[in-house]
Structure formats: structure tokens, C-alpha cells
Design goal:
A hairpin with a 5-residue loop joins strand 7 and strand 8. It is built from 6 helices and 8 strands; from the N terminus they run βααβαβαββαβββα. It has a single domain, classed as P-loop containing nucleotide triphosphate hydrolases (Rossmann fold). It is globular and about 40 Å long. The N and C termini lie close together (about 5 Å). The protein binds adenosine-5'-triphosphate and magnesium ion.
Length: about 190
């Protein structure tokens, strides 16, 4: 089974920082957006493992998509890939949960119920980013409160599959996004 890698769109106008790079020749193969479809749970686990391999303290992951799109499912898989022994549960009511990986900690936030960005600021999660990465469901609501993020958008595909768009505009993610793309290409053929 192979997840089809739909596109590396280095020319996407939404990602101007890459287009204005002073060394465009070297940038020509730079993936700025990875689109995957037919992502079943097995493939989602592989994407989460690929993200876990490149994740560092201070990183943010913005997870977007409708209810039941798979955002929490992804965080469960990410936490497992980071070696977190605790069971991951949705922080919809508690807003933030902390997990301890074998090397890196993970803060899991659900911004769905936040009415203002100030409520996110009040959690003072910045104080913990020196030892943790942070993954935020409905993270688009607080994107401007986060470090430059890896963004993963979930959309419906088949009943048990999702379409994923993985992107990052900040150069800090450039090589790592490419690594995630390469790992995602190796997921196996599409059904
Ligand atoms: N390919 C898939 N990817 C992700 N989830 C899937 C997939 N196939 C089935 N599912 C199921 O869909 C459900 C997704 O629920 P999940 O809680 O992860 O959604 P969510 O995006 O976090 O929703 P919410 O916005 O309510 O928090 C889970 O029960 C999961 O097992
Ligand atoms: Mg959720």
C-alpha cells in the first residue's frame, strides 16, 4: 500500500519566504507543502512517526480540520512515537495535557473551546517550550501565539481515510519538511 504524494508545491504563492530566498537554484526542490490522500490509520501512524523523528523542543504543530477529522488520533500516534507511555486523551475541557517522551516532552492543546487568544496566553505554555514541543488542535485560532509552526490540515477522504496537507512557511522547517515528505512517500502504494 502506498500513500500517493500529490504535490510538492515550491511555487505556492502563500509561501513567499521560500520564493524570495536568495539562492533559488538550490531551493528548487524544496517542498513547502506536502499533500497526502488515502491516509488510513496505518499511514497516519507513519506520518506521525516521521514528524516525531524531526520534532524538537520549542516546535509547534498546528492541527486543523473539522470535528472527528483525526487531530487527536494524530497526537496519540505522535506521543507514542515520541515514547510517551501515558494514554493520550482529548484536552477539550482541560485545554492542555503534558506528556513525557523518552527525549522530548509534548504539550497537547485543544483550542476548540477558547473564545479569545488571551485565554491561551493565560495558560503560559511558553514557559515550558524549552523542554517540550506543542501540538494544538484547532491551532489556527492561536497561530499568532505560537512559534513558527508545522501545519497539518485534515480533511475527509473516504470513510476510514483522510487527506492531509502538511506545510510550514518558516525556513526552520525547510529540511525537516522535506524529510517528512520523503518518509511519507515511502508509506506504500495507494489502494
Ligand atoms: N484515517 C484516519 N485518520 C484519522 N482518524 C481516523 C481515520 N480513520 C478513522 N479514524 C477515526 O476517526 C476518529 C477521529 O477522531 P479524533 O478525535 O481524532 O478527531 P478530532 O479531529 O480530534 O476531532 P475534534 O475536533 O472533535 O477534537 C477516530 O475515532 C479515529 O479512529
Ligand atoms: Mg480532538
Amino acid at each position: 500500500m502506498r500513500a500517493r504524494l500529490l504535490a510538492f508545491r515550491a511555487s505556492d504563492t502563500r509561501f513567499a519566504p521560500f520564493r524570495s530566498d536568495p539562492a533559488p537554484n538550490r531551493m528548487s526542490d524544496t517542498p513547502v507543502e506536502i499533500r497526502l490522500h488515502a491516509v488510513d490509520l496505518e499511514r497516519l501512524r507513519a506520518v506521525a512517526a516521521a514528524v516525531a523523528r524531526v520534532l524538537r523542543a520549542g516546535d509547534a504543530i498546528v492541527l486543523s480540520g473539522p470535528l472527528a477529522a483525526g487531530k487527536t488520533a494524530f497526537v496519540k500516534m505522535l506521543a507514542a512515537a515520541l515514547g510517551c507511555p501515558e494514554e493520550v486523551t482529548s484536552p477539550t475541557f482541560t485545554l492542555a495535557h503534558f506528556y513525557h517522551g523518552s527525549g522530548l516532552g509534548l504539550i497537547h492543546v485543544d483550542a476548540y473551546r477558547l473564545e479569545t487568544a488571551q485565554e491561551f496566553d493565560d495558560l503560559t505554555l511558553d514557559d515550558f517550550l524549552d523542554a517540550n514541543a506543542i501540538a494544538v488542535e484547532w491551532g489556527e485560532k492561536v497561530r499568532d501565539r505560537l512559534p513558527p509552526a508545522l501545519e497539518i490540515a485534515f480533511a475527509a477522504d473516504g470513510p476510514e481515510t483522510r487527506r492531509l496537507t502538511v506545510r510550514a512557511a518558516d525556513p526552520a522547517w525547510r529540511d525537516r519538511l522535506r524529510d517528512i515528505g520523503v518518509a511519507s512517500q515511502g508509506l506504500g502504494p495507494c489502494p
